[in-house]
From TrEMBL:
Belongs to the GcvT family. It comes from Isoptericola hypogeus. This is Aminomethyltransferase. Its EC number is 2.1.2.10. It comes from the Bacteria. Residues 295-379 form the Aminomethyltransferase C-terminal domain. InterPro entries: GcvT, GcvT/YgfZ/DmdA, GcvT/YgfZ_C, GcvT_bac, GcvT_C, GCVT_N, TrmE/GcvT-like.
Length: 382
């Protein structure tokens, strides 16, 4: 068995007494104190996350944008400099290999951020798919640390550490935008992105400076309610925000359309000369876009107290609380600390996917009532 890798912040987590767990080939903090306390801190103040297990793959050169247009389902070449976009890399049959964030750092410079467990594969796929284009693919994952500050007080905390010459740009930064800035004396790429449903920032920094920045953010955030937060809080936060997790809502049996993410697929991409630009998986995805779905990803709100969990059967509601026919399966589920009731995401058959449909989840042999609702379950306060 291969030993889990350690992030550049591993010693910081140990010093803080974190409970550690394997995730995507990495040894990561699951929690520092309690899942509930860390979740609530992000919703009410701020949380500090180590995301250094994620992959960072750079593409540079005159055809970097066109290469990504061919490799991914979205139109990376249309992203403005300093902006970012959610995308996916698919197999020829349209199945999702990973979901990604693509940042355009300059006219001929893009950054692709991949999920930890898929980073090596994504880098290899990008090398292969970009081979016919004038671009260089450079996997800088090992040299890069990624730290996130998430929550309603994130901007205030980060601004207090940002160099005066950069602070106005950080404060004015739009959602899904990025810019270089010096934070606590560390040169960083600062992005207003995140995976919690709250305002927040993600900071890409050299791995050797990660500890300095982590400690500075902890100290600066102490008076603002910031706490370090682990994977458990990150999962409950993203679930409340209705955000998919690879390996749960997305995998190699799923296309973007089943997941309700067909909007990220751009079937009409063209080259700079106006010619149609084929991309990997296009034909399969075009066919899928025209066909009726066999299953649909929906949100479920629990009417009782017992939560659904990944893998549980979704069933029709029978009489007297009995479970009816199986109509789907839960992909993610947990009690919602913010909302006070269980929430879940599930794939169900189309005829039971309408909002308001009353269903049940088989929770250890008992049919617990749930109802189909729109996502996200939680929206941040404006």
């Amino acid at each position: 068995m291969t030993e889990d890798q350690k992030t550049p912040l591993h010693d910081e987590h140990v010093a803080l007494g974190a409970s550690l767990t394997g995730f995507g080939g990495w040894l990561m903090p699951l929690r520092y104190t309690s899942d509930l306390a860390e979740h609530r801190a992000v919703r009410e103040a701020a949380g500090l996350f180590d995301l250094s297990h994620m992959g960072e793959i750079h593409l540079t050169g005159p055809q970097a944008g066109t290469a990504l247009d061919h490799a991914l389902v979205g139109a990376a070449s249309k992203i403005g400099v300093g902006r970012a976009r959610y995308s996916m890399i698919c197999a020829p049959d349209g199945a999702v290999l990973d979901d990604l964030i693509v940042y355009r750092l300059a006219d001929e410079h893009f950054l692709v951020v991949a999920n930890a467990g898929n980073a090596v594969r994504v880098a290899a796929e990008l090398v292969a798919r970009a081979a016919a284009f004038d671009t260089v693919v450079d996997d800088r994952s090992a040299a890069t640390a990624l730290i996130a500050v998430q929550g309603p007080r994130a901007e205030e905390i980060l601004a207090g550490l940002t160099a005066p010459v950069d602070v106005d740009a950080v404060r004015a930064m739009k959602y899904y935008a990025s810019a270089p800035a010096t934070v606590a004396g560390v040169e960083a790429l600062v992005a207003r992105t995140g995976y919690t449903g709250e305002d927040g920032f993600e900071l890409f920094v050299p791995a050797e400076r990660a500890g300095d920045l982590w400690r500075a953010l902890l100290a600066a955030g102490e008076g603002h309610g910031l706490v370090p937060a682990g994977l458990s809080a990150r999962d409950s936060l993203r679930l409340e925000a209705g955000m998919p997790l690879y390996g749960h809502e997305l995998d190699e049996t799923t296309t973007p359309f089943e997941a309700g993410l067909g909007r990220v697929v751009k079937l009409d991409k063209v080259t700079d000369d106006g010619e149609p630009l084929p991309f990997v998986g296009r034909d399969a995805l075009a066919a899928r876009a025209e066909s009726a779905p066999a299953r649909v990803l929906v949100g479920l709100r629990g009417e009782g107290r017992r939560p659904a969990r990944a893998g549980y059967d979704v069933v029709r509601r029978g009489l007297d609380g009995e479970a009816g026919a199986v109509v789907g399966h839960v992909t993610s589920g947990a009690p919602s600390p913010t909302l006070g009731f269980p929430v879940a995401m599930a794939y169900v058959t189309p005829e039971v996917s309408a909002e308001g449909t009353e269903l049940a989840v088989d929770v250890r042999g008992r049919a617990e009532p749930f109802v189909v609702v729109s996502m996200p379950f939680y929206k941040k306060r404006s």
